[in-house]
Amino acid sequence: MRGYPRKSAQAAARIVALTLMADGHVCRSEMQALEAAGAAARLGLPPEGLAAVVQELCEDLLAGADGGWSGTCRVPPALLAALLDEIDAPQLQATVLELCAAVAEADGHLADGESIVLTEAVRRWAPPLVPDAPAPAVALTSGYG
After folding, report:
1. Of 9, 14, 41, 96, which sits most exposed with the smallest number of CB within 10 A?
2. Structural domain includes residue 4
């Protein structure tokens, strides 16, 4: 997985991209929700910046797929935690959570992978409400809708 600077627009966009891809496909309604929310600008990216981060995430996931894409790619809990920990500015965390929620709600279905990313983000970024529990891997499957 390529590295981005902590608190950077690209690191924040990667979390949004994980949510976007977590249900196995990128829907037009999800992309429209991000556009309507002004996601790129709110994250401090140029208009094409979010699409570039999504592309880079796809490349990174494929490169780490151990010999090929079998329809499912798992982001281990430790990697998800490390990616979330790159965003430690509260205002940026709030923006990322809002954009991730917009993506997850856009198609009218909260997929397991989307729920995992959102739940882990809230767990890591919010004051503790429950004892730490291991997070499941995020399953990303191929396909576009």
Report:
1. 41
2. no
Taking the CA of residue 61 as centre, how many other CA atoms within 13 Å lie in the half-sphere pointing to its CB?
Answer: 26
pLDDT tens, position by position, 94-134: 999 999 999 999 988 888 888 999 999 999 998 665 556 56
Closest CA to 22 of 124, 101, 85: 101
d(CA 59, CA 9): 18
Residue 33: CB partners within 8 Å, gap ≥ 6?
102, 103, 105, 106
| Contact present, 140 and 74 (Cβ < 8 Å) | yes
Query: Would 3 be classed as within a structural domain?
Result: no
The count of structural domains within the chain is: 1
Q: Do the domain assignments include residue 45? A: yes
Q: Specify the pTM.
A: 0.81
How far apart are alpha carbons 119 and 80 in whole angstroms? 11
